[in-house]
Amino acid sequence: MTAEQLQLIFQSAWAALPTLLAAAPVTLGYALAAMLLGLPLALLVALARLSGVPFLRWISGVYVSFIRGTPLLVQIFVVYYGLPSFGLTLSPLVGGVLALTLNAAAYLSETMRAAILSVPRGQWEAALSLGLTRRQTLRLVVLPQAARVALPSLGNTLIGLVKDTSLVSVITVVELLRSAQLVIARTFEPFGPYLAAALIYWVISSALAWVQRRLEARLARQG
């Protein structure tokens, strides 16, 4: 690669940077929205899989198996292009967030289920013997301990969601990757914009990983 080619790549990446930086909050917003919406759903699914009701265990197991066994891109197509067949038309914003949320919830539910199971059974028995109900025991005793166990996996899921948001570009959402594609369509120089987009993804993921490590260290000191 010649010096002129390197200079062209650098110039194209630098020229694309303002457009890509403007789209970065959209990418982060999609990831955070899917995480915040997916966590309550994941907890419900995890509790359903741990319940003594066979139907709840079965339906939650099917949901997790389906989501984990199919590509996220196919799930986005099903939500955005498939639901209109049933009279439910979603905007790209809602369709993208919904698909990411359903996907994240399935993986997060397994994390939550494992974290809840990691809490010793004696914790349940001690809380119940003190007069707490099962719901109070879950909320006040078990979930705080499970959250510490689940934190590393939760952080990894959020970082994964940041990268997975690139797939919503297929339904015309102008996030980071889509912005890079639009720049390339104008300049016909792909390497620079894609490289700049990759660096922004890396910076966001590194920042989230740093926050995760800080939270883990703080919880370890409190523990």
What shape does the CA trace take?
Answer: flat
> Low-confidence runs (pLDDT<50, min 5 residues)?
none
Tally of DSSP β-strands: 0
Q: Tally the helices: what do you get?
A: 8
User: Biggest β-sheet, characterized?
Assistant: none
Distance between the termini: 54 Å
What percentage of amino acids are in beta strands?
under 5%
Radius of gyration: 21 Å
User: Which structural class should the secondary elements be placed in?
Assistant: mainly alpha
Q: What value does the average pLDDT take?
A: 91
Helix coverage percent of residues?
Answer: over 70%
SSE string, helix = H, strand = E?
HHHHHHHH
Description of the structure:
By secondary structure, this protein is mostly helical. The chain has eight helices and no strands.
Which SSEs are present, and which pair or pack?
Elements: H1 3-50, H2 54-68, H3 72-82, H4 92-118, H5 121-129, H6 134-164, H7 176-187, H8 191-222
Helix pairs in contact: 1-2, 1-4, 1-6, 1-7, 1-8, 2-4, 3-4, 4-6, 5-6, 6-8, 7-8
